[in-house]
Amino acid sequence: MNQREIIDFHEGWKFMQNGITKLKSILEGAAETHFTSEEHIMLYTTIYNMCTQKPPHDYSQQLYDKYKESFHEYITSSVLPSLKERHDEFMLRELVRRWQNHQVMARWLSRFFFYLDRYFISRRSLPPLMEVGLTCFRELVYQEVKVKVRDAVISLIDREREGEQIDRALLKNVLDIFVEIGNGLMDFYEKDFEDAMLKDTGAYYSRKASNWIVDDSCPDYMLKAENCLRREKERVSHYLHSSSETKLLEKVQHELLFVYATQLLEKEQSGCHALLMDEKVEDLSRMYRLFSKISGGLEPVSNTFKQHVTAEGSALVKQAEDAVSQKKTDKKDVVGVQEQVFVRKVIDLHDKFMAYVNNCFLNHTLFHKALKDAFEVFCNKGVAGSSNAELLATFCDNILKKGGSEKLSDEAIEETLEKVVKLLAYIGDKDLFAEFYRKKLARRLLFNKSANDDHERSILTKLKQQCGGQFTSKMEGMVTDLTLARENQTHFEEYLNNNPTANPGIDLTVTVLTTGFWPSYKSFDLNLPVEMVKCIEVFKEFYETKTKHRKLTWIYSFGTCNVNGKFESKTIELVVTTHQAAALLLFNTSNRLSYQEIMAQLNLSDEDVVRLLHSLSCAKYKILNKEPSTKVISPNDVFEFNGKFTDKMRHIKIHLPPGDEKKKVIEDVDKDRRYAIDASIIRIMKSRKVLGYQQLVSECVEQLSRMFKPDVKAIKKRIEDLITRDYLERDKDNANLFKYLA
Fold first, then answer.
1. I need a surface site. Which of 184, 315, 436, 470 has the fewest CB within 10 A?
2. Residue 334, pLDDT score
């Protein structure tokens, strides 16, 4: 076999140098032809042969050194001089060109010296050829020009911020060098460019903001800030590295928003409060978008929102109180109407600000809380002596009863009820609402005043979802009771048809209710007329055929009767309560009766007799004549049947005003609260056995606050009561410590 001829190092390198010189000429733009495949193979083969000769003719190390020298020599002789003689944008263009040439040169040389990369370098654990080329450029070019380049780039960015058109592609290419020079690490980009760029950005926007805050209104300032942030984001997408986005935007937000947040929000004619007053929805949305980006930015906005809503709501309360007191002064009987208007206005106010929370403030929890806190303030104030719990119950009653002042479609009723239930969430005394609602529901059901059963059930479902099953269990029981009562009446009528001897003498409808579901009513031993006594006996006989173990308690105050009044001109059918009927029937046997005689014969209290006689002798329909003829009932009055009474109608209803229900409801609720506090204390102590006073009170308040806000004094009173009843005892050594007695 022919032995391969040994290549001398100088001879071999001279051949390689010719190839490298041609490559440099091509890069410098000389009219050179590109490498042919034969030239490429010859250059590669020369390196291959010089590296695979036996020692001492293996020139791998020398060639590795010469590779590095080639870059060094080219950079110092051509690249650096051309960069030093150029400035600003021209220097940047030259740097980009030189970097691109360097990458081309590194690619070609690494192909020629490929054998070194594959074997020699991997065996000796030396830096790869591409890395060597990169290191040369970094140490000789980058370190030399980086400060000038950075300043030139920042200058161009500032010019663009001022509205000038700049070559974004150039900046992109320059900044790519800062990234690529790190060979996978971002250190050079961050330390040599980004830090200074962020510092300059801060200074630039600090100068701008200091002028804008003086000259511009809050909406104009925010518009400028939003545009600046948008443009900075675009800047990142055009030429900055994506990792700069968060830092850059934070810097701009800090200078434009964080530094001037308080001044901006409190601007007198255009700050947050003014925007809320003027209903500037778009500006409020922008304020939310901007201030949500800075730490703690939304708290002052939500506080202002809360103050504004509280002020608007409190103004409604005052407006309603003024209207009510004005009507009382004018002696017009429209107090209830004003309260209805007030609830409607509160619903509208809630709709308006809930729309702000949903749309302007994107459902952020801070604003939900602000709205809740604000509504809790004025929704628990009450109007003209009526609590909002009562007003809401009355408002519902007006919607749900026949002939109410609110004339709404079925969809509108559903929507309104939904909104009322939402308002109930802000009311502290939910138990008071429940009791008022129950009283009014009872009247609607018993007097057949309910406009639509579906709506009645619908609101109960909504209340159940909002306040829990316990809240509505009695009300649901009442609605069910009425259905059972109708069935019971049908059975009673069948019983009468099947038993001719059981004849009540007059038409009788009895509604049997379950005591636990319905509000408690006073039951009097009213002395009934003979006709009515017989009816009751017949019904008792019927009821005993169905059940032997249930006791019937008759609530005459809720009964109604149709009585024929035989007046001189004509007979008129009078629709009256059982009490009124009993009083009128007394005049069948006597022409004149004194107040005392009526009271004794009916067996009613003073208060009830006064209301009863007033409705028959002093109100719209004067069925009885009174002596003396005054508008006030006194114990010395005498009454006689008014035979001359007449009316154009043949069928009239004589209204009996109800007693003071509000007082009764509040008393009932207070009583229930005492039981609720007792039950809560016992529950807590049963599980804890021993507990301190403060902790017991706070746990009790927490347990009960879903239904009402218990008064600490009331809790203390209940604890004392439970001690006297031997449920709890005080610790002998520590008076503030309680023990549960099983």
1. 184
2. 45
- H or E segment at 66? helix 60-74
Closest CA to 730 of 739, 741, 720: 739
**In this predicted model, what pLDDT tens digit does every residue of 397-421 receive, in sequence order?**
888 888 766 677 888 889 999 999 9
CA 459 to chain centre: 22
Which pTM value belongs to this model? 0.77
Q: Is the pLDDT of residue 254 over 90?
A: yes
CA 138 to chain CA centroid, Å, is 56
User: What integer is the mean pLDDT of 197-212?
Assistant: 94
β-strand pairing of 737-740 with 690-692 = antiparallel
> From the CB of residue 517, how many other CB atoms can be counted at a distance below 10 Å?
17
Rounded Cα gap, residues 152 and 60, in angstroms: 43
Q: Which residue has the higher pLDDT, 660 or 358?
A: 358
Alpha carbon distance 359, 281 (integer Å): 9
pLDDT of the residue at 404: 67
Can you give the pLDDT at residue 327?
67
674: closest CA among 704, 635, 629?
A: 704
- Contacts by residues 364-370 (CB-CB < 8 Å, ≥ 24 positions apart): 364/288, 364/292, 364/298, 364/302, 366/298, 366/299, 366/302, 367/298, 367/302, 367/305, 369/302, 370/302, 370/303, 370/305, 370/306, 370/309
> 275, 359, 272, 349: which is closest to 312 by C-alpha?
349
Residue 390, SS3?
Answer: helix
443, 484 in Cβ contact below 8 A? Answer: no
DSSP type of residue 374 = H
Quickly list H helices, 242-387. 244-253, 261-265, 272-277, 281-291, 298-329, 335-355, 365-379
- What is the rounded CA–CA span in Å between residue 380 and residue 433? 12
Using the predicted structure, report yes or no on whether residue 596 has a pLDDT greater than 80: yes
Q: Are 397 and 459 in contact (CB under 8 A)?
A: no
Which of the 8 DSSP states describes residue 524? Answer: -
